User: Fold this.
Amino acid sequence: MSESLSSTSDRPAILGGQAACPDAWPTWPVHDDDEETRLLKVLRSGEWWFGENVQQFEQEFAAFQGAKYGVTCTNGTTAIEMGLRAIGVVEGDEVVVPPYSFISTASAVVTLGAIPVFADIRPDTLCLDVDDVAKKITPRTKAIIPVHIAGLMADMERINALASEHGLVVLEDAAHAWGSQLQGRGAGTWGACGTFSFQVSKNITAGEGGILVTDDEEIADLCRSFTHCGRTKDSQWYDHNLLGSNLRLTEFQAAILLAQLSRLENQVGRREKNAALLNEALAAIPGIRRLASASQMTRRSYHMAIFRLEESTFGLSRDKFIQALNAEGVPASEGWYRPLYQNGVFQTAHEGPAHGIRAPLADKGVDYRQVSCPVCEQVCRDAVWIPQNVLLAEEAQIENLIRAIQKVAKHADNLRDANLPST
Ligand SMILES: Cc1ncc(COP(=O)(O)O)c(C=O)c1O
Assistant:
Protein backbone atom coordinates (compact mmCIF):
# COMPACT_ATOMS: atom_id res chain seq x y z
CA MET A 1 0.00 0.00 0.00
CA SER A 2 1.64 3.25 -1.04
CA GLU A 3 0.48 6.63 0.17
CA SER A 4 1.82 9.99 -0.92
CA LEU A 5 3.30 11.69 2.12
CA SER A 6 2.61 15.18 0.85
CA SER A 7 -1.12 14.44 0.52
CA THR A 8 -1.64 13.21 4.03
CA SER A 9 -1.70 14.83 7.40
CA ASP A 10 -1.08 11.55 9.16
CA ARG A 11 2.59 11.29 8.32
CA PRO A 12 4.40 8.62 10.41
CA ALA A 13 6.10 10.18 13.41
CA ILE A 14 9.41 8.66 12.39
CA LEU A 15 9.15 10.63 9.14
CA GLY A 16 8.37 13.88 10.91
CA GLY A 17 4.63 13.51 11.58
CA GLN A 18 2.80 13.76 14.88
CA ALA A 19 3.00 10.79 17.22
CA ALA A 20 -0.31 8.91 17.43
CA CYS A 21 0.22 8.08 21.12
CA PRO A 22 1.52 11.24 22.81
CA ASP A 23 0.19 10.35 26.28
CA ALA A 24 2.16 8.35 28.81
CA TRP A 25 1.05 4.74 29.21
CA PRO A 26 0.02 3.44 32.62
CA THR A 27 3.14 2.78 34.63
CA TRP A 28 3.98 -0.56 36.18
CA PRO A 29 3.99 -1.74 38.94
CA VAL A 30 0.91 -0.11 40.44
CA HIS A 31 0.23 0.37 44.14
CA ASP A 32 -1.99 2.46 46.36
CA ASP A 33 -2.92 2.93 50.03
CA ASP A 34 -3.70 -0.75 50.32
CA GLU A 35 -0.05 -1.78 49.84
CA GLU A 36 1.08 1.03 52.16
CA THR A 37 -1.32 0.08 54.94
CA ARG A 38 -0.54 -3.60 54.74
CA LEU A 39 3.21 -3.00 54.60
CA LEU A 40 3.17 -0.65 57.58
CA LYS A 41 1.13 -3.15 59.52
CA VAL A 42 3.73 -5.84 58.94
CA LEU A 43 6.56 -3.42 59.70
CA ARG A 44 5.06 -2.32 62.98
CA SER A 45 4.03 -5.82 64.04
CA GLY A 46 7.60 -7.09 64.01
CA GLU A 47 6.24 -10.29 62.43
CA TRP A 48 8.31 -10.08 59.27
CA TRP A 49 8.87 -13.75 58.72
CA PHE A 50 6.63 -16.48 57.26
CA GLY A 51 3.29 -15.82 58.95
CA GLU A 52 -0.33 -14.89 58.46
CA ASN A 53 0.13 -12.77 55.31
CA VAL A 54 2.03 -15.52 53.53
CA GLN A 55 -0.55 -18.11 54.54
CA GLN A 56 -3.48 -15.90 53.56
CA PHE A 57 -1.91 -15.13 50.21
CA GLU A 58 -1.21 -18.80 49.52
CA GLN A 59 -4.84 -19.67 50.23
CA GLU A 60 -6.29 -16.76 48.26
CA PHE A 61 -4.07 -17.20 45.23
CA ALA A 62 -4.61 -20.97 45.09
CA ALA A 63 -8.38 -20.38 45.33
CA PHE A 64 -8.19 -17.72 42.62
CA GLN A 65 -6.65 -20.28 40.27
CA GLY A 66 -9.01 -22.99 41.54
CA ALA A 67 -6.38 -25.12 43.28
CA LYS A 68 -6.48 -26.64 46.76
CA TYR A 69 -2.96 -25.76 47.87
CA GLY A 70 -0.49 -22.97 47.26
CA VAL A 71 3.16 -22.96 48.37
CA THR A 72 5.01 -19.69 47.97
CA CYS A 73 8.71 -19.41 47.29
CA THR A 74 11.36 -16.91 46.24
CA ASN A 75 10.54 -16.72 42.52
CA GLY A 76 9.11 -18.50 39.50
CA THR A 77 12.40 -20.27 38.83
CA THR A 78 12.60 -21.93 42.22
CA ALA A 79 8.90 -22.76 41.93
CA ILE A 80 9.64 -24.83 38.81
CA GLU A 81 12.67 -26.44 40.43
CA MET A 82 10.78 -27.52 43.53
CA GLY A 83 7.79 -28.63 41.47
CA LEU A 84 10.00 -30.84 39.31
CA ARG A 85 11.56 -32.36 42.42
CA ALA A 86 8.15 -32.94 43.98
CA ILE A 87 6.81 -34.74 40.92
CA GLY A 88 9.83 -37.03 41.00
CA VAL A 89 12.12 -35.75 38.26
CA VAL A 90 15.64 -37.00 38.97
CA GLU A 91 19.04 -36.88 37.33
CA GLY A 92 19.06 -38.30 33.83
CA ASP A 93 15.30 -37.98 33.27
CA GLU A 94 14.14 -36.18 30.13
CA VAL A 95 11.65 -33.36 30.39
CA VAL A 96 9.95 -31.99 27.27
CA VAL A 97 9.86 -28.18 27.19
CA PRO A 98 9.08 -25.49 24.61
CA PRO A 99 11.97 -23.33 23.39
CA TYR A 100 9.82 -20.17 23.28
CA SER A 101 10.02 -19.19 26.94
CA PHE A 102 12.18 -17.64 29.59
CA ILE A 103 15.36 -19.59 30.37
CA SER A 104 14.05 -20.91 33.71
CA THR A 105 11.63 -23.33 32.02
CA ALA A 106 14.63 -25.27 30.76
CA SER A 107 17.38 -24.31 33.23
CA ALA A 108 15.29 -25.58 36.16
CA VAL A 109 15.37 -29.00 34.51
CA VAL A 110 19.16 -28.84 34.18
CA THR A 111 19.53 -27.72 37.79
CA LEU A 112 18.10 -31.10 38.79
CA GLY A 113 20.53 -32.90 36.52
CA ALA A 114 17.69 -33.80 34.17
CA ILE A 115 17.70 -33.19 30.42
CA PRO A 116 15.47 -30.64 28.69
CA VAL A 117 14.23 -31.91 25.34
CA PHE A 118 12.85 -29.17 23.15
CA ALA A 119 9.59 -29.68 21.26
CA ASP A 120 8.43 -27.01 18.84
CA ILE A 121 5.58 -24.57 19.38
CA ARG A 122 2.41 -23.97 17.40
CA PRO A 123 2.47 -21.01 15.02
CA ASP A 124 -0.92 -19.78 16.23
CA THR A 125 -0.64 -20.12 20.02
CA LEU A 126 3.16 -20.06 20.51
CA CYS A 127 2.58 -22.85 23.06
CA LEU A 128 3.79 -26.45 22.82
CA ASP A 129 2.86 -28.31 19.65
CA VAL A 130 1.48 -31.57 21.05
CA ASP A 131 2.27 -33.49 17.84
CA ASP A 132 5.92 -32.53 18.20
CA VAL A 133 5.89 -33.36 21.91
CA ALA A 134 4.72 -36.88 20.98
CA LYS A 135 7.72 -37.24 18.66
CA LYS A 136 10.13 -36.26 21.43
CA ILE A 137 8.96 -38.84 23.97
CA THR A 138 11.48 -41.61 24.74
CA PRO A 139 11.67 -44.27 27.46
CA ARG A 140 13.62 -41.71 29.53
CA THR A 141 10.91 -39.03 29.38
CA LYS A 142 9.48 -38.23 32.80
CA ALA A 143 7.57 -34.98 32.45
CA ILE A 144 6.24 -32.26 30.16
CA ILE A 145 6.34 -28.54 30.96
CA PRO A 146 3.80 -26.61 28.89
CA VAL A 147 4.29 -22.83 29.12
CA HIS A 148 1.18 -20.64 28.84
CA ILE A 149 2.95 -17.93 26.96
CA ALA A 150 1.67 -14.42 27.68
CA GLY A 151 -1.29 -16.12 29.37
CA LEU A 152 -2.53 -17.92 26.24
CA MET A 153 -2.93 -21.46 27.45
CA ALA A 154 -1.43 -24.54 25.85
CA ASP A 155 -3.73 -27.34 24.67
CA MET A 156 -3.97 -28.94 28.11
CA GLU A 157 -6.54 -31.57 27.15
CA ARG A 158 -4.25 -33.08 24.54
CA ILE A 159 -1.12 -32.64 26.65
CA ASN A 160 -2.75 -34.44 29.58
CA ALA A 161 -4.01 -37.22 27.29
CA LEU A 162 -0.53 -37.70 25.85
CA ALA A 163 1.00 -37.63 29.33
CA SER A 164 -1.34 -40.27 30.70
CA GLU A 165 -0.82 -42.45 27.64
CA HIS A 166 2.93 -42.48 28.37
CA GLY A 167 2.83 -42.28 32.16
CA LEU A 168 4.31 -38.77 32.28
CA VAL A 169 3.75 -35.98 34.75
CA VAL A 170 2.74 -32.47 33.68
CA LEU A 171 4.03 -29.33 35.38
CA GLU A 172 2.52 -26.13 33.96
CA ASP A 173 4.84 -23.16 33.79
CA ALA A 174 2.10 -20.61 34.35
CA ALA A 175 4.53 -17.76 35.09
CA HIS A 176 2.42 -15.50 32.79
CA ALA A 177 -1.01 -16.96 33.47
CA TRP A 178 -2.36 -15.47 36.70
CA GLY A 179 -6.13 -15.67 36.19
CA SER A 180 -6.00 -17.46 32.83
CA GLN A 181 -8.63 -20.16 32.47
CA LEU A 182 -9.33 -22.82 29.89
CA GLN A 183 -12.95 -24.04 29.92
CA GLY A 184 -13.40 -22.30 33.26
CA ARG A 185 -10.49 -24.17 34.81
CA GLY A 186 -7.52 -22.15 36.02
CA ALA A 187 -3.99 -22.31 34.70
CA GLY A 188 -1.87 -24.41 36.99
CA THR A 189 -4.70 -26.80 37.85
CA TRP A 190 -4.58 -28.92 34.70
CA GLY A 191 -1.26 -30.61 35.40
CA ALA A 192 -0.01 -32.20 38.60
CA CYS A 193 1.02 -28.70 39.61
CA GLY A 194 1.55 -25.23 38.17
CA THR A 195 4.04 -22.49 38.92
CA PHE A 196 3.76 -18.69 38.81
CA SER A 197 6.14 -15.75 39.01
CA PHE A 198 5.67 -12.46 40.83
CA GLN A 199 8.80 -10.79 39.47
CA VAL A 200 8.45 -7.08 38.88
CA SER A 201 7.33 -7.16 35.23
CA LYS A 202 4.55 -9.62 36.06
CA ASN A 203 0.85 -8.76 36.24
CA ILE A 204 0.88 -9.26 40.00
CA THR A 205 4.16 -8.55 41.71
CA ALA A 206 6.10 -8.03 44.91
CA GLY A 207 9.34 -7.32 43.04
CA GLU A 208 10.17 -11.01 43.31
CA GLY A 209 8.23 -14.05 44.44
CA GLY A 210 6.73 -17.28 43.20
CA ILE A 211 4.12 -19.87 44.00
CA LEU A 212 3.29 -23.45 43.13
CA VAL A 213 -0.36 -24.52 43.13
CA THR A 214 -1.62 -28.07 43.21
CA ASP A 215 -4.53 -30.26 44.28
CA ASP A 216 -2.11 -32.92 45.45
CA GLU A 217 -1.39 -32.74 49.17
CA GLU A 218 1.79 -34.77 48.87
CA ILE A 219 3.23 -32.41 46.24
CA ALA A 220 2.26 -29.43 48.41
CA ASP A 221 3.88 -30.95 51.50
CA LEU A 222 7.07 -31.81 49.64
CA CYS A 223 7.30 -28.31 48.21
CA ARG A 224 6.73 -26.77 51.62
CA SER A 225 9.55 -28.89 52.95
CA PHE A 226 11.88 -27.90 50.09
CA THR A 227 11.20 -24.22 50.77
CA HIS A 228 11.65 -24.68 54.50
CA CYS A 229 15.10 -26.24 54.85
CA GLY A 230 13.75 -29.77 54.59
CA ARG A 231 11.50 -29.59 57.63
CA THR A 232 8.46 -31.79 57.29
CA LYS A 233 4.99 -31.55 58.79
CA ASP A 234 5.19 -31.86 62.57
CA SER A 235 8.98 -32.14 62.58
CA GLN A 236 10.97 -30.46 65.32
CA TRP A 237 12.61 -27.16 64.41
CA TYR A 238 16.05 -28.67 63.98
CA ASP A 239 14.87 -31.87 62.33
CA HIS A 240 15.62 -31.65 58.63
CA ASN A 241 14.17 -34.79 57.16
CA LEU A 242 14.49 -33.97 53.47
CA LEU A 243 17.01 -32.10 51.38
CA GLY A 244 15.58 -28.61 51.29
CA SER A 245 16.62 -25.04 50.84
CA ASN A 246 15.45 -21.70 52.15
CA LEU A 247 13.00 -20.41 49.56
CA ARG A 248 10.57 -18.65 51.86
CA LEU A 249 8.65 -15.51 50.96
CA THR A 250 8.66 -12.70 53.53
CA GLU A 251 5.59 -11.15 55.16
CA PHE A 252 6.42 -7.90 53.36
CA GLN A 253 6.17 -9.57 49.98
CA ALA A 254 2.98 -11.37 50.92
CA ALA A 255 1.42 -8.13 52.19
CA ILE A 256 2.08 -6.50 48.81
CA LEU A 257 0.85 -9.55 46.93
CA LEU A 258 -2.43 -9.56 48.86
CA ALA A 259 -3.06 -5.98 47.79
CA GLN A 260 -2.06 -6.78 44.22
CA LEU A 261 -4.31 -9.84 44.14
CA SER A 262 -7.31 -7.79 45.26
CA ARG A 263 -7.21 -5.79 42.02
CA LEU A 264 -6.08 -8.56 39.68
CA GLU A 265 -9.53 -9.61 38.50
CA ASN A 266 -10.44 -6.08 37.42
CA GLN A 267 -7.12 -5.65 35.69
CA VAL A 268 -7.49 -8.94 33.84
CA GLY A 269 -10.92 -7.75 32.65
CA ARG A 270 -9.53 -4.46 31.41
CA ARG A 271 -6.63 -6.09 29.60
CA GLU A 272 -9.01 -8.55 27.94
CA LYS A 273 -11.33 -5.76 26.82
CA ASN A 274 -8.50 -3.68 25.38
CA ALA A 275 -6.88 -6.71 23.76
CA ALA A 276 -10.21 -7.51 22.09
CA LEU A 277 -10.35 -3.99 20.60
CA LEU A 278 -6.78 -4.31 19.41
CA ASN A 279 -7.28 -7.80 17.95
CA GLU A 280 -10.38 -6.74 16.10
CA ALA A 281 -8.53 -3.86 14.46
CA LEU A 282 -5.49 -6.00 13.65
CA ALA A 283 -7.70 -8.46 11.77
CA ALA A 284 -8.20 -5.88 9.03
CA ILE A 285 -4.49 -5.26 8.44
CA PRO A 286 -2.89 -7.50 5.79
CA GLY A 287 0.39 -8.96 6.96
CA ILE A 288 -0.49 -8.92 10.65
CA ARG A 289 -1.08 -12.40 11.94
CA ARG A 290 -3.00 -12.57 15.18
CA LEU A 291 -2.59 -15.46 17.58
CA ALA A 292 -5.39 -17.99 17.98
CA SER A 293 -8.60 -16.55 19.32
CA ALA A 294 -8.51 -19.31 21.95
CA SER A 295 -12.25 -19.82 22.00
CA GLN A 296 -11.89 -22.37 24.79
CA MET A 297 -10.24 -19.83 27.02
CA THR A 298 -12.68 -18.32 29.46
CA ARG A 299 -10.18 -15.82 30.84
CA ARG A 300 -6.80 -14.70 29.61
CA SER A 301 -4.23 -12.79 31.58
CA TYR A 302 -2.44 -11.07 28.66
CA HIS A 303 1.03 -10.69 30.13
CA MET A 304 1.62 -9.04 26.78
CA ALA A 305 -0.23 -8.67 23.52
CA ILE A 306 1.64 -10.61 20.85
CA PHE A 307 1.07 -10.74 17.12
CA ARG A 308 3.23 -11.79 14.20
CA LEU A 309 4.32 -9.72 11.24
CA GLU A 310 4.47 -11.31 7.79
CA GLU A 311 7.01 -8.94 6.36
CA SER A 312 6.41 -9.76 2.70
CA THR A 313 2.65 -9.13 2.93
CA PHE A 314 2.92 -6.15 5.26
CA GLY A 315 5.65 -4.61 3.13
CA LEU A 316 8.01 -3.66 5.92
CA SER A 317 10.64 -5.44 7.99
CA ARG A 318 9.86 -6.11 11.65
CA ASP A 319 12.77 -3.91 12.61
CA LYS A 320 11.38 -0.89 10.77
CA PHE A 321 7.84 -1.67 11.90
CA ILE A 322 8.94 -1.58 15.54
CA GLN A 323 11.02 1.56 15.06
CA ALA A 324 8.07 3.29 13.43
CA LEU A 325 5.74 2.19 16.24
CA ASN A 326 8.21 3.34 18.91
CA ALA A 327 8.30 6.76 17.24
CA GLU A 328 4.48 6.83 17.44
CA GLY A 329 4.82 6.33 21.22
CA VAL A 330 4.04 2.60 21.27
CA PRO A 331 6.46 0.56 23.41
CA ALA A 332 6.41 -2.38 20.97
CA SER A 333 9.40 -4.71 20.84
CA GLU A 334 10.53 -7.91 19.22
CA GLY A 335 10.30 -9.57 22.63
CA TRP A 336 13.29 -10.88 24.45
CA TYR A 337 13.03 -14.51 23.50
CA ARG A 338 15.28 -16.45 21.22
CA PRO A 339 15.02 -20.25 21.00
CA LEU A 340 16.23 -21.36 24.40
CA TYR A 341 18.56 -23.98 22.96
CA GLN A 342 20.50 -21.22 21.19
CA ASN A 343 21.70 -19.86 24.54
CA GLY A 344 25.31 -20.52 25.45
CA VAL A 345 24.30 -22.73 28.36
CA PHE A 346 22.88 -25.24 25.87
CA GLN A 347 25.20 -24.65 22.93
CA THR A 348 28.17 -25.55 25.15
CA ALA A 349 26.37 -28.14 27.27
CA HIS A 350 28.21 -31.05 25.66
CA GLU A 351 31.57 -29.70 26.81
CA GLY A 352 30.66 -28.15 30.13
CA PRO A 353 30.93 -24.48 31.06
CA ALA A 354 34.29 -22.76 31.30
CA HIS A 355 33.85 -21.70 34.91
CA GLY A 356 35.03 -25.01 36.25
CA ILE A 357 31.82 -26.34 37.76
CA ARG A 358 31.03 -29.59 36.04
CA ALA A 359 28.10 -29.04 33.70
CA PRO A 360 25.13 -31.15 34.77
CA LEU A 361 24.54 -31.96 31.10
CA ALA A 362 28.12 -32.94 30.22
CA ASP A 363 28.45 -36.69 29.55
CA LYS A 364 24.69 -37.05 29.14
CA GLY A 365 24.93 -37.45 25.38
CA VAL A 366 23.26 -34.16 24.51
CA ASP A 367 24.32 -31.85 21.73
CA TYR A 368 21.99 -28.88 21.48
CA ARG A 369 23.90 -27.57 18.45
CA GLN A 370 21.85 -30.11 16.48
CA VAL A 371 18.47 -28.97 17.84
CA SER A 372 16.14 -27.02 15.62
CA CYS A 373 12.53 -26.00 16.20
CA PRO A 374 11.67 -24.16 12.97
CA VAL A 375 8.37 -22.65 14.10
CA CYS A 376 9.95 -21.18 17.20
CA GLU A 377 12.84 -19.83 15.15
CA GLN A 378 10.42 -18.15 12.75
CA VAL A 379 8.35 -16.71 15.60
CA CYS A 380 11.51 -15.25 17.13
CA ARG A 381 12.05 -13.47 13.80
CA ASP A 382 8.52 -12.13 13.37
CA ALA A 383 6.79 -11.68 16.75
CA VAL A 384 5.85 -8.25 18.03
CA TRP A 385 5.21 -7.74 21.75
CA ILE A 386 3.28 -4.98 23.44
CA PRO A 387 3.65 -5.08 27.24
CA GLN A 388 0.77 -5.64 29.63
CA ASN A 389 0.75 -2.14 31.15
CA VAL A 390 -0.33 -0.74 27.78
CA LEU A 391 -3.44 -2.92 27.99
CA LEU A 392 -4.40 -1.17 31.24
CA ALA A 393 -4.88 2.14 29.42
CA GLU A 394 -8.19 3.91 28.84
CA GLU A 395 -10.03 2.96 25.67
CA ALA A 396 -9.12 6.27 24.00
CA GLN A 397 -5.43 5.42 24.32
CA ILE A 398 -6.04 1.98 22.83
CA GLU A 399 -7.76 3.71 19.91
CA ASN A 400 -4.57 5.77 19.50
CA LEU A 401 -2.51 2.59 19.60
CA ILE A 402 -4.69 1.14 16.85
CA ARG A 403 -4.32 4.35 14.82
CA ALA A 404 -0.55 4.12 15.22
CA ILE A 405 -0.46 0.60 13.79
CA GLN A 406 -2.87 1.55 11.00
CA LYS A 407 -0.75 4.57 10.15
CA VAL A 408 2.43 2.49 9.95
CA ALA A 409 0.60 -0.07 7.80
CA LYS A 410 -0.71 2.62 5.47
CA HIS A 411 2.76 4.05 4.97
CA ALA A 412 4.63 0.75 4.85
CA ASP A 413 6.03 1.54 1.40
CA ASN A 414 7.25 4.99 2.40
CA LEU A 415 8.79 3.58 5.56
CA ARG A 416 10.45 0.73 3.70
CA ASP A 417 12.09 3.16 1.31
CA ALA A 418 13.06 5.63 4.03
CA ASN A 419 16.57 5.50 5.33
CA LEU A 420 15.82 4.65 8.96
CA PRO A 421 18.73 3.99 11.29
CA SER A 422 19.14 0.25 11.70
CA THR A 423 18.87 -1.05 15.25
C1 LIG B 1 7.71 -18.34 31.32
C2 LIG B 1 8.53 -18.04 32.53
N1 LIG B 1 8.86 -19.05 33.36
C3 LIG B 1 9.57 -18.84 34.48
C4 LIG B 1 9.99 -17.58 34.81
C5 LIG B 1 10.84 -17.40 36.03
O1 LIG B 1 10.26 -16.56 36.97
P1 LIG B 1 11.16 -15.68 37.96
O2 LIG B 1 11.75 -14.56 37.18
O3 LIG B 1 10.20 -15.23 39.00
O4 LIG B 1 12.21 -16.58 38.50
C6 LIG B 1 9.67 -16.49 33.99
C7 LIG B 1 10.12 -15.14 34.32
O5 LIG B 1 10.11 -14.23 33.52
C8 LIG B 1 8.93 -16.74 32.82
O6 LIG B 1 8.62 -15.74 31.99
